[in-house]
Amino acid sequence: DDTYQGFVFQAAVADADALYLAGAQEVAEGDADFVVVRLFGDGTLDWQSNYGFAGSGTEDLALDLAFDNSGDLVASGYFTDDEQALAVVKVGIDGSTAWERTLPVASGHRPFGRHLAVGPRDQVAIVGTVEGSMGDESALGAVFSSTGAFEWSQTYGYAGDFTADSFDSVAIGRDGSVYATGLLDEDGGDERWVITRHDEGGT
Questions:
Q1: Per-residue confidence of the chain (203 residues) as pLDDT tens digits?
Q2: Rounded to an integer, what distance in angstroms lies between the CA atom of residue 75 and that of residue 63?
Q3: Distance between alpha carbon 186 and the CA centroid of its chain, in Å?
């Protein structure tokens, strides 16, 4: 329907014959779905998978994507209705859903799963930020297993209101350690780059 818009936030090529897109599709006035799309090499649509909270007035966005070791697609972002949750889905190369997970946070907070990485055992690490109810932002990291089981999450940043702390990239080592980098920005201008490392258990 040309009445509604679509948005692409990330793209990746798996092979010479396929392009994958992650983004959002407006499905009704003020209602957007988290969307993953596969296109053939000539640009024609192979399949499209839509996700998100049920009901009208939701804002569900896919912000990043990556491939696991079997060629399946993993996408991260967030689902929003009255509350917001970090979201991650795994989709097979045929468009079938392997699993779909959300990570709720405290009421009134808004998490954004902006970047992800897939590890050697297909574990998924997601980083971004979570906005607090008082205008503060904390850096957020979370890890899910290859089957979608939640493993651990952490937040980082300055204490207080009006901070702007975020993780902007993530990688997983061969031993399963998770590395995240970002910026801690305290209200008043004290900015610091940060890098963190956690083992597989989140320590």
A1: 455 678 889 999 977 689 999 999 988 877 889 999 999 988 899 999 999 887 767 789 999 999 999 999 999 999 988 788 999 999 999 999 999 999 878 778 889 999 999 999 999 999 999 988 777 888 999 999 999 999 999 988 766 656 778 899 999 999 999 999 998 887 656 778 889 999 888 88
A2: 7
A3: 24
Map residue 193 onto helix, strand or coil. strand
For residue 113, what is the enclosing H or E element? strand 110-118
Instruction: Give this prediction's pTM.
Output: 0.89
Residue with tokens 């997601």: 126
- CB proximity list for 168: less than 8 A, separation 6 or greater: 114, 115, 127, 181, 182, 183
Q: What is the DSSP string of 20-84?
A: EEEEEEEEETTEEEEEEEEEETTS-EEEEEEE--SSSS-B-EEEEEEE-TTS-EEEEEEEESSSE
| Token pair in block for residue 131 | 């906005």
146 three-state secondary structure: coil
Tokens of 166: 């975020």
